[in-house]
Write a structure and sequence with these properties.
The structure is a single chain. The chain has a single domain (8-275), classed as Creatinase/methionine aminopeptidase superfamily (Creatine Amidinohydrolase), CATH 3.90.230.10. The chain has five helices and 15 strands. The chain has helices at residues 8-28, 38-53, 124-142, 150-163, 263-266, and strands at residues 56-57, 75-78, 81-83, 97-106, 109-118, 167-168, 174-176, 183-187, 204-207, 210-212, 218-220, 227-229, 235-237, 240-244, 249-251. A hairpin with a 6-residue loop joins β11 (218-220) and β12. The longest helix has 21 residues, at 8-28. The chain is globular and about 50 Å long. The structure holds 2-amino-4-trifluoromethylsulfanyl-butyric acid (MF3) and cobalt (II) ion (CO) (2 copies). The site of 2-amino-4-trifluoromethylsulfanyl-butyric acid has 12 residues, from β4. One cobalt (II) ion binds next to β4 and β5.
Length: 276
């Protein structure tokens, strides 16, 4: 299926959906504390989305081919859970790391974003993993501009994570997004520079690397959704929805509470000064 770049008015709709998704993360951040259950976080987010924002939680009853309907409104992936953790009775405790992944639908358009939260202080390894995953996402985003290729994104993400001794999950990837939750193209978080599809202005997709402290291998739990690391090592993920522009990129999932980009993003990158 062809990839249709979004029109200016569609992009405006995507900006709104993206900001609203990020604002759910702003809303839930102060609640991610020891003693709360992941199910409690789901309930709070659900009520905020439906009751305050007037958005639809896209995960609820989402049923891609081969999956039973997803039963909750957000994903909460704790410690060695890689992604798609189903909120429930689990009580968060000091030192846990948790990814909260929010996808809203507003006026038919999707915004998809996730952040890591460290409950309490966290171990040095946990903090380093979360920071590296954040940097890796931004290394990928930084590659985005008209004419760049998907392999440029994947390579930049992979190179950063592996340079820190971590591994990249291969089985899950970023994705085109728009009227549908998961559209073409697939955005791999590994790859070779100058390979793959060339980016065009108006494309919208997510960059959402999953970074494991140990080996990259994963397993699926019997609940049909939750993905965990095979070696039970910690895993971290961040996600933004981005727009391809002529000059570069625009992050659509920004809000007042978005963590600032790493310092290397602000630094002017001239080809001559870029270390490769
Ligand atoms: N938000 C996830 C992503 O980034 C997808 C979650 S699908 C669900 O693509 F059904 F588990 F919610
Ligand atoms: Co996504
Ligand atoms: Co997501």
């Amino acid at each position: 299926m062809a990839i249709h770049p979004k029109t200016p008015s569609e992009i405006e709709s995507m900006r709104l959906a993206g900001r609203l998704a990020a604002e759910v993360l702003d809303f839930i951040a102060p609640h991610v504390k020891p003693g709360v259950t992941t199910g409690g976080l789901d309930r709070l987010c659900h009520d905020f989305m439906v009751g305050v924002q007037g958005t639809i939680p896209a995960p609820l009853n989402y049923a891609p081919p081969g999956h039973k309907p997803y039963p909750k409104s957000i994903c909460t992936s704790v410690n060695h859970q890689v992604c798609h953790g189903i909120p429930g009775d689990r009580v968060l405790k000091d030192g846990d790391i948790v990814n909260v992944d929010i996808t809203v639908i507003k006026d038919g358009w999707h915004g998809d974003t996730s952040r890591m939260f460290i409950v309490g202080e966290g171990s040095i390894q946990a903090r380093r993993l979360c920071e590296t995953a954040y940097e890796a996402m931004w290394k990928g985003i930084q590659q985005v501009r008209a004419g760049a290729r998907l392999g440029d994104i994947g390579h930049a993400v992979q190179r950063h994570a592996e340079s820190r001794g971590f591994s990249i999950v291969r089985e899950f990837c970023g994705h085109g997004i728009g009227r549908r939750f998961h559209e073409e193209p697939q955005i791999l978080h590994y790859g070779q520079p100058r390979q793959g599809l060339a980016l065009e202005p108006g494309m919208t997709f997510t960059v959402e690397p999953m970074v494991n402290a140990g080996r990259r291998d994963i397993r699926a739990l019997a609940d049909g959704w939750t993905i965990v690391t095979a070696d039970h090592s910690l895993s971290a993920q961040w996600e933004h929805t981005v727009l391809v522009t002529e000059q570069g990129f625009e992050v659509l999932t920004v809000s007042a509470g978005s963590p600032p980009p790493p310092a290397f993003v602000a630094a002017p990158a001239t080809p001559a000064a870029t270390v490769s």
